[in-house]
Write a structure and sequence with these properties.
Layout (H helix, E strand, L loop, with lengths): L6 E5 L4 H12 L3 E6 L2 H14 L5 E5 L7 H11 L4 E6 L14 H29 L3 E5 L12 H22 L4 E6 L7 H5 L13 H13 L4 E3 L2 H12 L2 H14 L14
Parallel strand pairs: 1-2, 1-4, 2-3, 4-5, 5-6, 6-7
Length: 274
């Protein structure tokens, strides 16, 4: 990916996939805007990247994107500072395992606000200057969970299905204006996700990709102007199988597996938007 004069803005940039996007883009010469809740972790990543990669600028903006008006505030701050965003990486998000009826309603609303509302608002805001320049890109992080309804991860899977559908439709609209949309669908990945969502039958480290692997595949796909990518060979095979199976069979099987594993709600979600 060729680095332009502008910035790459990454949400959820203090850990996991977001932090790895920052590292790999910085190595390519991109200047960065890093957004997450944790100021200490953001500053740590910023300092490390600035000392490792000469000639780039790294701006850290601590912000809770679930706060009403936060996406607009972020856009106004970057515009006021003349930070031209050439690529937006909507990575921030979280999930939870457990029965929907047992989830805390405020946490459920936060999940929707972060996984969907903030993502849509940021895409809408940053698309406008991209359209004016007739260049730029927006990458939304969804999940293989968005390919099927998943009992005991009902809301998370539904939010990622929205992100997948929204992004694939936006690919066609945006390309008419010289803007490239892409959605990334990782499977289980070594990150903070399972610290937040809680353990499940899908959190076995031996089955996970690393964040570095996910990001390398994603950046290659972006360079090739792909509209969508499922990262990892095993995940791509899983998607093929899911498209062939009846939805009722999938939900019944996943439900049995999750109940057998006695999956419940996590004890804490304090780390979800670092």
């Amino acid at each position: 990916m060729v680095s332009p004069q502008g910035f790459a803005l990454i949400t959820g940039a203090s850990s996991g996939i977001g932090e790895e996007f920052a590292r790999q883009l910085a190595a390519q010469g991109w200047s960065l805007i890093l957004v997450a809740r944790s100021q200490d972790r953001l500053e740590k990543v910023r300092s490390e990247l600035m000392s490792t990669h000469m000639g780039i600028d790294v701006v850290a903006i601590p912000l809770d994107l679930t706060t009403p008006g936060a996406p607009a505030d972020l856009f106004q701050r970057t515009q006021a500072a003349n930070l031209d965003v050439e690529i937006l990486l909507n990575n921030a998000g979280f999930g939870a395992f457990g029965e929907f009826a047992s989830l805390d309603l405020n946490r459920a609303r936060q999940m929707i606000d972060l996984n969907i509302v903030a993502l849509v608002e940021l895409a809408h805001l940053y698309m406008q200057p991209m359209i004016q320049r007739r260049r730029g890109g927006i990458v939304n992080i969804a999940s293989v969970a968005g390919y099927a309804p998943l009992p005991y991860s009902t809301l998370y899977a539904a939010t990622k299905a929205f992100v997948k559908s929204f992004s694939q439709a936006m690919y066609e609209e945006a390309r008419q204006h010289g803007v490239h949309f892409m959605v990334v669908n990782p499977g289980s990945t070594e990150s903070n996700f399972f610290k937040v969502a809680g353990k499940s039958p899908f959190s076995d480290p031996s089955r996970m990709q690393t964040s570095a692997e996910v990001v390398r595949e994603s950046l290659r796909a972006f360079d090739r102007k792909k509209s969508s990518i499922v990262t990892g060979t095993s995940n791509r095979l899983l998607i093929v199988v899911l498209t062939l199976l009846p939805r009722r069979w999938i939900t019944a099987t996943v439900g049995r597996v999750m109940r057998r594993a006695k999956v419940g709600a996590p004890e804490t979600m304090e780390q979800w938007n670092e």
